[in-house]
TrEMBL record:
Family of the protein in this entry: Belongs to the peptidase M14 family.
Function: Involved in the digestion of the blood meal.
UniProtKB keywords: Carboxypeptidase, Disulfide bond, Hydrolase, Metal-binding, Metalloprotease, Protease, Secreted, Signal, Zinc
Protein name, per record: Zinc carboxypeptidase A 1
Signal peptide range: none
Domain Peptidase M14: 117-409
Subcellular location, principal: secreted
GO molecular function: metallocarboxypeptidase activity; zinc ion binding
UniProt xrefs under SMART domains: Zn_pept (SM00631)
Amino acid sequence: MWFKLTLLLVAAIAWGGSAEQARFDNYRVYEVSIETERQLKTLQHLELNPDGYSFWESPVQTNMRLSIVVPPHKFAHFEELSVALALKTRLQIEDFQKVIDNERPMRSTRATFGWTDYYTVDEIYAWMDQMVAQNPTILSGSVYGKSFEGRDLKAIKLSHKAGNPGIFIEANIHAREWISSATATWLLNELVTSSNAAVQNLAQNYDWYFIMVANPDGLTYSKTTNRQWRKTRQPVNALCVGADPNRNFDYMWMTGGASSVPCSDTFAGLTAFSEPETKAMADYYATIADKINIQFSFHSYGQYLLTPFGFSGAPLPSNNADLQRIAAVTAAAIEATYGTRYTYGNSASVLYTTSGSTVDYFVGVHGTKLGFTFEFRDTGATGFVLPANQIIPNAEETLNGIIAFVAEAKTLGYV
């Protein structure tokens, strides 16, 4: 009986039975460079047996960097481990809870939806519905499915005229990456309201498809319960909940950079498309794929502009030279805005291997010619917890990057 009660208690905690917000007082975040097989295997073992540690990226290969959240009771252990393994480490964050506490300085003063704070799924959806109601001739909304917990999966389309080339943007597939949906909503607002000629050109001569919140259950959980939550919320077993939706798409699934361990943050799911959120997005994309010339996935953090493919041993796309040329122009436009420097290149080469991602799926299955991943600000000072006062600067430089991106894509004959 005691064993059964313990399992039920653990399951209730894992499944979010308590809405009490997790705290991370005095937790430190370290960047760690993995250079040897011994270091890799040890960190992989630690991820499987964390005892308070948490990993912001899974250790999947040598020659990669990742961030580890270290609780106070593990400070001495982490120091000993670093010495024993000759790990190169860098302290990113001294007190993770202070970063969380400083994330939303305007939360007590906000009155209406805007871009000086982060919002809930319901608030984002209400804003989307309001935008459609106020602009019915150019905006249309749709519900393309349901999440595991029964939330709507919503898309919104901007179109001034028939026959435009299509641009598809998905955001917040990883729950804790709040800046991604904040930037996506800001971009749509600019496309609808801006008087800037370059922005008006984008709005009038391209059809825009947005999924603002690809993982609404996870985003909700990250706001109510655990700021570090990344995955979906479908239980896998009595101890583990959720899959990484950006490892769950059915293209080269589980061929590198994904985990088969259910409690891992990069768990790819029991099968491809095991998560209702990913299957619904794939089905929705299939209905518009022949209209899409450009596809963007919005993520954080690290300041990267990544091109496909990400799976292990993947060939470069046949148009890789064009992809890198477009990426260079885009990164230059971003940097020209506020000096923010982006690293660009093939995702497996400049970051780490991944498989089952949205970009690889849309390019590999549907033949979308231009598929890119944005990893937004910053480079580690706040990590996934980017202060809300950076939403607008991040969005502004992203818009300038997209303007340059589309112009270069047009020069090369893609749109």
